[in-house]
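Let us begin with a simple case.
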Amino acid sequence: MIERDCATKAPSSSEEGVGGGGRRALLLRRAAKMRSNLTEPERRLWMELRSSRFHGFKFRRQTLIGERIVDFFCPAKSLAIEIDGDTHDPGRDQWRDAELRRRTGFGVLRFTNEEVMRNLDGVLAALKIALDRQPDRWLNPARHHPPTPSSEEEGE
């Protein structure tokens, strides 16, 4: 049990995320800003992943998982994809990835900016292998991601 100091101020409703404030709201605003300002490597990968183009897998970009914004996320396979620039600390990233897996069961696949820019086909091949190895998150994935109707079916 954690003991609290009696002098500790109780958090305000905005600090707890009530009323549109708090850390979660801040992170959601940051993720929305990041979605509109993708880096060039993120933009290139997103063009391959968007609209279920990549082998029918649905991806989200700059999405919030707990208190972390991941570059891309495939909900059906519980797989996050991170594109790392020069400022990333591999040791810290490894710890954060292990913590995300421990808390959520979600895996993380990392690529560098350079890999995406110089070898996008290799990145996509590695991503496909990782997706194939990752178990389905839901028992009936088709229920959570129905097929897109064909143009003939839309007219009926």
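The second case is a distinct protein. As before, the sequence precedes its structure tokens.
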Amino acid sequence: MEIIQDYISITKAKSDLLNLIRRIENTDDAFAITKNGTPEAVLISMKKFKGLLETIDILSDEQAMKSIRKSIREANQGKWVEFDKVFEQ
């Protein structure tokens, strides 16, 4: 997975901001904005931003991470529950 699709100078970003926003609206593209050739900021879609915040929230939740790690260990050990049994009443 490539994180940054393009590096754009701040001067070009200022003059082309509307087109950049149109490009990221329906994609997972991310653009690094550079100042004097050094990346200083990133432009991403709101959808991707919200996804990153949700990921951070999950990763910072100790109970959720404990449960995820346990599930991964069990899956690696071949401990699976059949789909029909999960929703049995």
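The beta strands are 6-9, 30-35, 38-44. The first strand starts at residue 6 and ends at 9.
Keep these points in mind for the review questions at the end of the chapter.
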